[in-house]
Write a structure and sequence with these properties.
The chain is of the alpha/beta class. The chain contains 10 helices and 11 strands.
């Protein structure tokens, strides 16, 4: 199974916790390939640095403790980003320019024919095989509806935080090439998400349990996506609470189903920080 993340040096917490949720909830015996797209973009912000080789190597070590065939593969896309998207209308997009990196995956031959893109603010509540084994014959990708977009924009408007790609068909229809052209020419509210949605020829709609952006139903939810959401109490407001914001997450949601994953996440993170500081 092939998993894709993207981001800068600050995605370590998300990648580690999401990866652990996959490894601890899966019953699959075969190995995983975890790809991480990253880049240096300090010309925009000093903190926009690529995920370090040390962090990638540590994530690889953790993955291999679960299965020696697991791999974490870092891909630096700085050059192609600067060539394609530097100073484009969507570089200052709603989240960060790192959300645009998935639009380059057709340009890298090491990316396999089937790959699951995941935002890092995601936790698996059930076996990833329930999602990954979706039949994509005749579709460029599979995605679930965006919780708010399906009401405000279009009933089939997708959330791009969970995208299962059929790379062979996506290349045939030039999905990513069309999306890149939109990014370069037109300012869009949700940038990469809008570009993918508008460039789609054929998509498979997934049940909401594969990308629950607001609720977690312990018996049915496969993927809990900790995206920004609206809270009504004590007054209407939005909050962007991630799984690694432990105190806020437990206070807001009271989940216990992820306890074993998050306990290990804390232990692994502290161990990495101690070893990293010692070797600096």
């Amino acid at each position: 199974m092939n998993i894709l993340f993207s981001g800068n040096s600050k995605v370590f917490d998300g990648v580690l916790s999401c990866m652990l949720s996959i490894l601890k909830r899966t019953e699959v015996k075969e190995g995983f390939n975890f790809y991480i797209l990253t880049m240096e973009l300090t010309r925009m912000k000093p903190e926009y640095t690529a995920i370090s080789d040390e962090a990638a190597a540590y994530l690889d070590l953790v993955a291999k403790e679960y299965n020696k065939d697991n791999k974490v593969i870092k891909i630096d896309v700085t050059d192609i980003y600067e060539k394609e998207f530097a100073n484009c209308p969507n570089e200052q997009c709603y989240c960060s320019p790192y959300t645009l990196l998935r639009l380059f995956i057709d340009l890298y031959p090491e990316i396999p024919d089937k790959i699951l893109y995941l935002d890092v603010d995601i936790m698996f509540n059930k076996d990833i095989a329930l999602l990954y084994n979706t039949d994509l014959t005749g579709y460029e990708y599979a995605a679930a509806r965006d919780h708010y977009g399906k009401y405000l924009l279009n009933p089939n408007y997708i959330n791009a935080g969970v995208l299962l790609f059929n790379m062979k068909m996506a290349k045939e229809t030039n999905l990513f090439g069309k999306a890149r052209e939109l990014i370069k020419k037109k300012k869009m509210l949700f940038a990469d998400q809008d570009a993918i949605y508008r460039s789609t020829t054929s998509k498979k709609m997934l049940p909401q349990k594969f990308n629950d952006q607001k609720f977690l139903h312990v018996k049915s939810t496969v993927v809990r996506h900790f995206s920004k959401r609206l809270f009504y109490l004590p007054y209407p407001h939005t909050a962007n609470i991630k799984q690694w914001h432990l105190s806020k997450m437990y206070r807001a949601f009271g989940y216990s189903c992820f306890d074993d994953i998050l306990y290990e996440y804390v232990y692994r993170k502290m161990k990495f920080e101690r070893e990293y500081e010692r070797n600096k």
